[in-house]
Predict the 3D structure of the following.
Amino acid sequence: MPQRLAQTWLTQQALSHPALKPDAALAELKDKDLDALGQAANAWSITPDGTEGYAKAEVTAGGVDTRDLSSQTMESKLVPGLHFIGEVVDVTGWLGGYNFQWAWASAMACARALTPASTAGASA
Ligand SMILES: Cc1cc2nc3c(=O)[nH]c(=O)nc-3n(C[C@H](O)[C@H](O)[C@H](O)COP(=O)(O)OP(=O)(O)OC[C@H]3O[C@@H](n4cnc5c(N)ncnc54)[C@H](O)[C@@H]3O)c2cc1C
């Protein structure tokens, strides 16, 4: 936990646990206070109060239903010959590379399916 967040959090905890001194060293705390802190930390939840809007958005939720696509070829089960890959499909990853991974992996699966067997795997 970043130091400033830890200090703010401890100061808030001290309001409901008067015995807790936010500046106390860990070794000075009694076991029951440590237990109380541990329980409070595990029960702590955060409710975001908003987003930074579309201009800062990095990934979209929703899209073409994966149940309507072949996971092997990304071809539509409803319209043969039509393929969907990447962002347009209803697959949303955590930030950190998972969306790129999905875009590249689904593109690879699709490309392999569209490549005649004789040239599949050949280097470009
Ligand atoms: C600011 C930002 C930061 C991101 N950071 C990360 C990250 O760190 N890690 C991660 O994994 N993901 C990240 N993402 C998400 C990731 O970029 C996308 O999931 C990924 O690029 C999707 O690839 P795609 O090829 O499916 O779609 P896109 O990359 O959106 O490509 C679609 C292409 O189609 C073109 N196009 C659209 N309409 C038409 C048309 N009518 N005719 C012709 N061309 C058209 C568009 O111009 C675009 O070039 C980020 C996204 C944003 C916006």
